[in-house]
Structure to design on (607 residues):
């Protein structure tokens, strides 16, 4: 085998790609190449420390994409941050390590993906992470975990409760307890709704970020059969005969190079880049490929379609001077920074260890709180069923299948349609009340940001190439709020944030009367909430579904082995394969997806 010949070539050294590289290279007889477009930033303190996550956005480790103007969001273009570094988005995410719901995972199977359900996937989640087990009774109570069974997981990603217990976490738990809405049991083991303290991908031994580069790749980097190239940009996948993937053409060290794959090419470039690379390689909608002069290898019209993403909407509230927040760090105050550094160096704890995303709540649709609201929700969903006019048979089948699953979730009081969380600091941006445009505006004082996220978006968008040049970013149109139910449900959840902030004992942390940090957040009716959401909502950076694992007659791109329809020796393993978003953060699901994919590959090749 020459130096350019490999058994497996993995395009993308991100969250999923490094899981695959680590697991496949466990067989020393198989040679593996990983091509990562970004650099290795694993020694960068901004990557290591969760508190620096906002500083990574727009930096050289971020693809920093921009959406098309969003009609449902006052024509705003939304910045779409995605990791361009070893570890991918796991190197710059908010570190939340949330469970999916079992019903969501079972919905993957119900969409036609046999063998992809909670019973099967649970094992692969547990294979990816290791939680903390040694809680004392006081800690369990403060974390709201009394009576919970432990996760029983054991994997490379280390998860913990950084900065916990603390004022905000304890107040969050007690508030939901008094409301009768505290999560009653471990959501990793059983579905429910309610508030809880979430785990974060922070290694308790170091206080640093635990992610695919320093967890999975660390296990494998010294293996002689694993080659990883950074700053290596894949240009296209090579094919021979009947759409058989044979290798990858890529740029590295100012040269165009080619590597051959004896077994498989595995695309793990993410929900925006994987469909782009398929199209550049001749797999996609014939009309798009021919528009840019790309020879058609497989006419697969649903590549790049079905883009789904979580939206979030934030509002801050003024906190007491005695409330522990990170506003001093946001303002770069020397005293606050020195104190945080000393705590990190001495105890491996403190505000620098995490993004501050510590609280969480899975909450059902607000309308279900009253018979009138439930009826209104039913009518809203009935009025906005997908219209089949102008859709292909495959598009009709996909739209109908998705709608039926989402509708069940939205009307189920035991399933979340929204997730709530907090940051113990202000979001330092001011929103133009007419256009939604953002400017940096750092406030004095202490603040707590309350956030609502849309758990089951019905809106679907797309990502496609805009030229045949690999250097050009793709055209990305998430079509946020293109489905009216998304705006209605999001606005209801955002309006609830006012009520949550005014609930004791969270009120003990806030100035009285409860006062929004910015005047734009001061509203009390649903129409005003809708306007605020259209101005202020943004992406939670969870794009998925653009190379969806679905039956081909439902507009799928991948089969249940994650192989691209119509091809040989080509798989896609990343968020683009996800057929339906879990209700909260995506990273745990991507690790589980990649672990399952590695198992399928090892089984097929007897590794």
């Amino acid at each position: 085998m020459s130096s350019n010949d490999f058994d497996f070539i993995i395009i993308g050294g991100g969250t999923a790609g490094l899981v695959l590289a680590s697991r496949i290279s466990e067989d020393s007889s198989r040679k593996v190449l990983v091509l990562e477009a970004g650099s290795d930033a694993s020694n960068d303190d901004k990557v290591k420390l969760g508190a620096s996550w906002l500083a990574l956005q727009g930096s050289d480790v971020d693809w920093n994409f921009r959406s098309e103007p969003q009609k449902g969001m006052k024509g705003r273009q939304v910045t779409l941050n995605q990791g361009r570094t070893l570890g991918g988005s796991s190197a710059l995410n908010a570190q939340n390590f949330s469970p999916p719901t079992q019903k969501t995972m079972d919905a993957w199977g119900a969409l036609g993906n046999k063998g992809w359900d909670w019973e099967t996937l649970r094992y692969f989640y547990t294979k990816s992470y290791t939680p903390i087990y040694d809680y004392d009774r006081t800690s369990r109570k403060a974390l709201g975990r009394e009576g919970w069974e432990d996760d029983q997981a054991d994997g490379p990603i280390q998860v913990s409760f950084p900065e916990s217990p603390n004022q905000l976490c304890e107040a969050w738990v007690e508030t939901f307890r008094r409301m009768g809405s505290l999560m009653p049991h471990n959501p990793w083991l059983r579905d429910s709704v309610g508030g809880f303290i979430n785990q974060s991908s922070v290694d308790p031994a170091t206080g640093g970020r635990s992610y695919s580069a320093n967890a999975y790749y660390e296990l494998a980097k010294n293996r002689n059969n694993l080659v990883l190239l950074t700053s290596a940009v894949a240009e296209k996948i090579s094919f021979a005969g009947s759409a058989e993937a044979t290798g990858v053409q890529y740029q590295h060290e100012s040269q165009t190079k080619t590597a051959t794959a004896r077994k498989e090419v595995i695309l793990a470039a993410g929900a925006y880049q994987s469909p782009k690379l398929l199209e550049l390689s001749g797999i996609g909608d014939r009309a798009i490929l021919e528009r840019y002069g790309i020879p058609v290898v497989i006419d697969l019209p649903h590549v790049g379609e079905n883009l789904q993403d979580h939206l979030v909407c934030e509002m801050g509230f003024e906190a007491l001077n005695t409330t522990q927040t990170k506003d001093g760090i946001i303002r770069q105050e020397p005293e606050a920074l020195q104190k945080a550094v000393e705590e990190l160096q001495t105890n491996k704890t403190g505000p620098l260890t995490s993004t501050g995303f510590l609280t969480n709540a899975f909450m059902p649709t607000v309308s279900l709180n009253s018979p009138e609201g439930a009826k209104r929700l039913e009518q809203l969903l009935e009025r906005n069923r997908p219209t089949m006019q102008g859709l292909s048979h495959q598009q009709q089948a996909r739209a109908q299948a998705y709608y039926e699953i989402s509708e069940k979730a939205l009307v189920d009081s035991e399933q979340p349609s929204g997730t709530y969380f907090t940051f113990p600091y202000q979001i330092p941006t001011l929103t133009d009340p007419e256009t939604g445009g953002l400017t940096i505006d750092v406030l004095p004082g202490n603040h707590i940001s309350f956030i609502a996220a849309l758990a089951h978006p019905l809106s679907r968008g797309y990502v496609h190439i805009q030229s045949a040049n690999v250097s050009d970013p793709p055209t990305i149109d998430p079509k946020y709020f293109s489905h009216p139910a998304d705006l209605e449900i999001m606005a209801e959840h955002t309006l609830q944030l006012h009520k949550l902030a005014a609930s004791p004992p969270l009120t003990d942390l806030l100035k009285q009367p409860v006062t929004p940090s910015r005047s734009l957040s001061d509203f009390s009716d649903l129409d005003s909430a809708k306007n605020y959401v259209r101005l202020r909502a943004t992406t939670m950076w969870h794009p998925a579904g653009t190379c969806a694992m679905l039956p081909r007659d439902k507009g799928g791109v991948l089969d249940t082995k994650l192989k691209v329809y119509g091809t040989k020796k080509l798989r896609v393993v990343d968020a683009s394969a996800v057929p339906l978003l879990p209700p909260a953060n995506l990273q745990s699901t991507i690790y589980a997806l990649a672990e399952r994919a590695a198992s399928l590959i090892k089984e097929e090749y007897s590794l």
